[in-house]
Amino acid sequence: MSQERRSSISRRTGETDIQLELGIEGTGISAISTEVPFFDHMLTLFAKHGRFDLQVKAAGDIEIDYHHTVEDTGIVLGQAFLEALGEKRGIFRYGSGHFPMDETLVRVALDVSGRPFLDYRGPAGVPHVGEKFNFTLVEEFLRAFAFNSLINLHVEIIYGRDPHHMAEAIFKGLARSLDAATQIDPRIAGDIPSTKDLL
């Protein structure tokens, strides 16, 4: 079984223009440019902690707000994982954990199941990160990613105060859980990890 699971996705709409390249068997090398500095930071650490090689070039209508750029990047990143994983032969399939970031603790659990779902639980009224990045965009990114990668994703902010720390723990937790779930299990020799023989 080839270990070169890679994909390249381009998506252009009236609101965004995104080119993305993903390598699942990577070392965490990234080149990220979305014109949204905090989002660039989140995607950079996502690549680093998931050991994914990731290139993202996005241009969007950020003069309106960041919503379209963040959501559409989630769509394209989800499509890239779906394409790169192919039939998902030999993967561990599940990944989960608790992820601390200073005063924050986040729980992430996911199943690369082929059945998309997002359950997101966090405090209401979390302030913006800095002056411009609306924290609700984190959930929008997660939903776009989960439904386009066909992943069952559960994310809970157990506790936390700093919005930067909460977002960072989520992106790191997503990365680590995806890395665990998409690794190849040598015991099943390329079989699909489902009694349905399809994911």
Structure report:
The protein is α/β, with parallel strands linked by helices. It has a single domain (6-188), classed as Imidazole glycerol phosphate dehydratase, domain 1 (Ribosomal Protein S5, domain 2). The protein contains four helices and eight strands; from the N terminus they run βββαβαβββαβα. The chain has helices at 37-50, 67-85, 136-149, 163-182, and strands at 6-12, 16-23, 30-33, 53-60, 94-101, 104-111, 117-121, 152-159. Strand 5 and strand 6 form a beta hairpin. It is globular. It starts with 5 loop residues before the first strand and ends in a 17-residue tail after the last helix.
Provide tags for this entry.
8 strands, four-stranded mixed β-sheet, alpha/beta, single chain, Ribosomal Protein S5, domain 2, 199 residues
What percentage of amino acids are in beta strands? 25-35%
CATH superfamily placement: Imidazole glycerol phosphate dehydratase, domain 1
The poorly predicted ranges are: none
The quaternary organization reads as: single chain
State the secondary-structure class. Answer: alpha/beta
What CATH first level would be assigned? Alpha Beta
The span between the termini is 17 Å
CATH architecture grouping: 2-Layer Sandwich
Number of domains: 1
Percentage of residues in helical conformation: 25-40%
Largest sheet: 4 strands, mixed
